[in-house]
UniProtKB/TrEMBL annotation:
Residues 254-280 have a biased composition (Polar residues). It comes from the Eukaryota. Residues 249-280 are annotated as: Disordered. This is Keratin, type I cuticular Ha4-like. The gene is LOC102840506. It comes from Chrysochloris asiatica.
Length: 280
């Protein structure tokens, strides 16, 4: 009985430890689900960053094409300006020839210099405005490109960090899978082993209960036999007491000298007479 009780207690302790192992496996599964959800969120962020990267690349290409277009437009403006200056010079040359014939007293050099100064000032203002506009556009474009480059580098660094995180999570997930498989195998083996042991313990308990039932029946039978013996003893003691009482009562009724009584009656041939002769 003590051995069976200790065995059952040990099995209870082992089953408790297996229960804790099962809880740990459930916690690991919950952690796996959380990490899987986190991984999906990270993958969604990576896809969003990739789309953003593609958009920034397209924006950069568009800005570069706009810069090239502005450079070509500035070059075209310079060429047009030179052509207009040359055409104006040729027109002014013909006009000067006509005016020299018509009015020789006019200072043509002064007029020409004034016109040239005005036109050069106008051209200089236009050129300065165009250069300022181009410089402003170029500066804004460079700022956008720099911001896009910084954002691109930040996105690339974040993508690399997310990839390392995903790789680490995949390794940890694989380890959790291996641990889960190992725990499941251990649990299956433990369940099979303890099922056999529980069956043996159940058989032992059944045998012990059967033995206890037999012992209880034997005790009840012996108790009944003991009660019968006690009753027999009581009856025998009662009968003995009865016989003793009867004998004592009979002895009290008998005379103290039976031989004298017999002689007085003249029964010399009686047993008392012979007894008396023998006593004499």
């Amino acid at each position: 009985m003590n051995f069976a009780w200790k065995k059952m207690r040990n099995q209870k302790t082992k089953l408790r430890s297996e229960f804790h192992s099962d809880l740990f496996m459930k916690d690991s599964h919950t952690q796996y689900q959380a990490e899987h959800s986190m991984r999906q969120l990270v993958e969604a962020d990576i896809n969003s960053l990739r789309r953003m990267l593609d958009e920034l690349t397209l924006c950069k290409s568009d800005l570069e094409s706009q810069a090239e277009s502005l450079k070509e437009e500035l070059l075209q403006l310079k060429q047009n300006h030179e052509q207009e200056v040359n055409a104006l010079k040729s027109q002014l040359g013909e006009r000067l020839n006509v005016e020299v014939d018509a009015a020789p007293n006019v200072d043509l050099n002064r007029v020409l210099n004034e016109m040239r100064s005005q036109y050069e000032a106008l051209v200089e203002n236009n050129h300065r405005d165009v250069e300022e506009w181009f410089a402003k556009q170029t500066e804004e474009l460079n700022k956008q490109v720099a911001s896009s480059s910084e954002q691109l580098q930040s996105s690339q660094a974040e993508i690399m960090e997310l990839r390392r995180t995903v790789s680490s999570l995949e390794i940890e997930l694989q380890a959790q899978h291996n641990l889960k498989d190992s725990l499941e195998n251990t649990l299956t083996e433990t369940e099979a082993r303890y099922s056999s042991q529980l069956s043996q313990v159940q058989n032992t308990i059944t045998n012990v209960e059967s033995q206890l039932s037999e012992i209880r029946c034997d005790l009840e039978r012996q108790n009944q036999e003991y009660q019968v013996l006690l009753d027999v003893k009581a009856r025998l003691e009662s009968e003995i007491n009865t016989y003793r009482s009867l004998l004592e009562s009979e002895d009290s009724k008998l005379p103290s000298n039976p031989c004298s009584t017999s002689n007085a009656r003249g029964n010399s041939s009686g047993p008392c007479g012979s007894s008396q002769s023998r006593r004499c």
